[in-house]
Amino acid sequence: MSQRLAPCREPTSPAAEPGASALLGTLVAGLRASRIASAAIVATDVHSPSKTVVAAYPAGLHAQLGSFDGRMDEPLERQNELPPPVQWHRRSDPQLAMLGWPKWMLKNGYNSLIRIRFPMGVAIECLLFSMADGFESEQLGVALWALMSMWDQLKTALLAERAILTPREVDCLQAAFDGLTAVQTAKKLGCTERSVRMHLSHVIAKLGAPNTIAAARRAQMLGII
């Protein structure tokens, strides 16, 4: 007798994990030597090219930075010899003035900013605000390593808080991105082909994409997969 497959239901929720803001707090604590005092994640919205603040530490920073939503997309010229994804800028940087940052940074005692672009999603960046006047290459490397070492946890927290896609939708889209057919995905996840196709149709609608391939590319840009 053949085994009957069940629909692809959402996985049971595990024990509560730290939220994105709490994880940023851990990041800041680990970078005290560089006088990092606060951190924020800015990301492109699903249906808009403009970046907005999606997580911040400490409490209250999110609301403060909200006034800059939509003004985080102008290109910033790097002031150091490290290639992207790491750049740093003094408060006096004319490029920061284009974004309206200097006055706010002065008011809060920040002298510099480290900007880290996530290599897996150009639509996501981490901003680290520091009281230091500048950084050595080694300090920038430490900041990048610290952030990327917690990326998996941070990504999970951001996806849960932003509620872009459900965990099962991410599973199905990741499988499609990896080249699996709906039949192969169903076998891998232990569910029906119909359920896989249903989840993928939801993904396409949520991401505003014309097809699965386009949805996968957009999800990759957003850091979802």
Mean pLDDT: 80
Radius of gyration: 20 Å
| Class by alpha and beta content | alpha+beta
Q: Count of helical segments?
A: 10
What is the H level of CATH, i.e. the homologous superfamily of the largest domain?
Answer: GAF domain
Low-pLDDT segments: 74-83
- What is the number of beta strands? 5
Q: Major beta sheet, specifics?
A: 5 strands, antiparallel
Strand-residue proportion? 15-25%
CATH topology of the largest domain: Beta-Lactamase
**Level-1 CATH class name of the largest domain:** Alpha Beta
- Distance, first to last CA: 37 Å
Topology as H/E string? HEEHEHHEEHHHHHH
The side-by-side strand order for the widest beta sheet comes to 2-1-5-4-3
Helix content: 40-55%
**Globular, elongated, flat, extended or rod-shaped: what is the shape?**
elongated
Structural notes for this entry:
The protein is α+β, with helices and mostly antiparallel strands. It has 2 domains: 20-162, GAF domain (Beta-Lactamase, 2-Layer Sandwich); 167-221, Winged helix-like DNA-binding domain superfamily/Winged helix DNA-binding domain (Arc Repressor Mutant, subunit A). Helix content is 44%, strand content 15%. The chain contains 10 helices and 5 strands, in the order αββαβααββαααααα. A hairpin with a 6-residue loop joins β1 and β2. Residues 74-83 have low confidence and may be disordered.
